[in-house]
Amino acid sequence: MGANKNLPGIIAMVAAAALFTVMDAGMKLLAEHYSPMQVTALRSLASLPLVYVYVAWRSSFAAMLRVRWPLHMLRGALAVVMLYTFVYGLRQLPMTETYTIFYVAPLLITALSVPLLGERVGAARWLAIVIGLAGVLIVLRPTGAGVFTLAGLAVVASAVCYTISAIAVRILGRTDSMESLMFWLISMLAFGSAALAWPHWQTVRPQDAWLITGVGITGFCGQWGITYAFRHGEVSAIAPFEYTSIVWTLGLDRLLWQTVPDHYTLLGAAIIIGAGVFLVRRERLHIEAEHP
Fold first, then answer.
1. Which domain holds residue 30?
2. Termini Cα distance of the chain
């Protein structure tokens, strides 16, 4: 696949990263009052009407039945575990630390895309990814102690679920429509998490309605962006651009929770962003070379 085919996916991933960061800030605020599983349910239920409207506009509900069920079921189960463990970690950790631990996912995706998808990863791309992950380790502190808290391990588990789901999207994208990918993921996530949260469901406070609505809208738009990105580009090329969300987490941590990043965080963020900029420039140079 030519580099020019990856650029739309890269743009979609950058936009999705920003949207998901805003959504996660909303979920962190909700997690102050509700359990992680209920927050998971509220997030997915709020997005569900938008997904159904999108499917009705772009396709048909009958077409949603002609899919590869085993992989869709796997993605649905992974989504419940992924979002629950992420919210659990997010509830106890600053957004910046949560995201930097989660950044293990792009490396896992790149590694698995070679044996599972047959993609070729060049030396320059590997180097940029490794440099970006070195920045993540700096943010986590040189000892890496943050990973070994229960909340940190929950985020690592979330990253593993996300990795497997991202690979599944690439495989499903060969046969199933983008509408079906979104429809079944959000549907299974919504009903599955709601069923698990129901025994301990807390009454939703009226003042949280705007927050839940915002989480639903940003979650839907972010999901569309990330589904488009992984379906229309090489996974190993798209995944590293999730690093751009570090900019948003730093700003939201400061704005909402008055958390000021220290010099380790700033240094790590600079390295991560630098690696991302290098990859963007590399893709652009390939496009210019192919289309002078």
1. 3-290
2. 18
- Lookup: tokens for 50: 């938008």
Mind listing the pLDDT tens digit for each residue in 158-168? 999 998 998 99
- Convert 141-168 to b/e letters by CB count within 10 Å (16 or more is b): beeeebbeeebbebbbbbbbbbbbbbbb
Q: Which residue has the higher pLDDT, 90 or 119?
A: 90
Amino acid at residue number 143: T
What torsion, rounded to 10 degrees, do the Cα atoms 5, 236, 181, 12 define?
A: -50
Query: Structural domain tally of the chain?
Result: 1
How does pLDDT run across 206-217, given as a tens digit for each residue?
999 999 999 999
Q: Tell me, what's the pLDDT at 143?
A: 58
Taking a C-beta distance cutoff of 8 angstroms, is the pair 10, 280 a contact? Answer: yes
- Estimate the share of the chain in helix, then strand, then coil, as percent rounded to the nearest 5: 85, 0, 15
